[in-house]
Amino acid sequence: MRHQREAGFTLLEALIAALILLVAIVFVAQLFVTAMQQNRTSRESTHATAIAQSKLEEINAMPLEKLVYGGDLGEKQGAGDKPGTPGYFDFLVVDDVDSDKIGVVNDRSKANYARFWKIEPDPGGWEGMYRITVRVVSLQPGTTTSREEVTLSTIRAQF
């Protein structure tokens, strides 16, 4: 009578398979963390762009006779912590719970973003032309060393 070998995996084979599975799970978990960070960065960038675009549209809707030169774009490398020229900056909050509604707040500690704008004559010297620039800075720490920010600019003609 012959003895048949039993078919199946040895303990060593099972341990190697478990180790390979563990390494794969660790890499997939790291992908999830990276995806969440990228999603947050993308969301902040989208909010900042929408906030800047909103201000550009608001200023463009104003009659030309009400446009007043002035303002600044905040500190060059600033994180929006210091207020800009009075009347040319505000703090905003995005309510993530209620459909991403955006609102202006007076208290910097409640804000998610600082928005600065500047209205100046056309740098090319064209009469009746205005350059309008809006800079929005995230007040929350970003995933990199610097905070997320967006700067939009447009030219408005008097004609």
Characterize the structure shown.
- This protein has 159 residues and is α+β, with helices and mostly antiparallel strands.
- The protein has one helix at 11-61, and strands at residues 70-71, 89-95, 101-105, 113-121, 129-138, 149-157.
- Strands 1, 2, 3, 4, 5 and 6 form a six-stranded antiparallel β-sheet that branches.
- It starts with 10 loop residues before the first helix and ends with a strand.
What topology emerges from the helices and strands here?
Layout: H1 11-61, E1 70-71, E2 89-95, E3 101-105, E4 113-121, E5 129-138, E6 149-157
Antiparallel strand pairs: 1-4, 2-3, 2-4, 4-5, 5-6
**How large, in whole angstroms, is the Cα Rg?**
27 Å
- Structural class determined from secondary elements: alpha+beta
Uncertain spans: none
- What is the end-to-end distance? 106 Å
Largest sheet: 6 strands, antiparallel
Rounded mean pLDDT is 83
- Number of separate helices: 1
Order of SSEs = HEEEEEE
How much of the sequence lies in strands comes to 25-35%
Q: What is the tally of beta strands? A: 6
Q: Fraction of residues in helices?
A: 25-40%
Name the overall outline.
elongated
